[in-house]
């Protein structure tokens, strides 16, 4: 499933760049949701989620406001850190 998302991001980024669109995939990080609360704190060294869904969405909205064409096709963490494909 994740590979499909990455592929679709790359396809859209390529197809729409001439029209001025910047397409990225964003990872929201560890968010305090029902699903996130069920993850054990010891899993891969992750700690319990402390960010609310509202905070996570707010961060990602702020990030999108600063995107440029240089970001086209990237996979990024909610704070703007590039993530490996």
What are the salient characteristics of this protein?
single chain; 85 residues; mainly alpha; two-stranded parallel sheet; 3 helices; 2 strands
Summarize the structure.
By secondary structure, this protein is mainly α. It has helices at residues 2-16, 34-37, 53-65; strands at residues 25-27, 75-77.
Commentary on this structure:
This protein is mainly α and 85 residues long. The protein has one domain. The chain is built from 3 helices and 2 strands. The protein is globular and about 40 Å long.
Strand % is 5-15%
Measure the end-to-end span.
13 Å
Succession of helices and strands: HEHHE
How many E-type strands?
Answer: 2
How many DSSP helices? 3
Compile the SSE list and pairings.
Layout: H1 2-16, E1 25-27, H2 34-37, H3 53-65, E2 75-77
Parallel strand pairs: 1-2
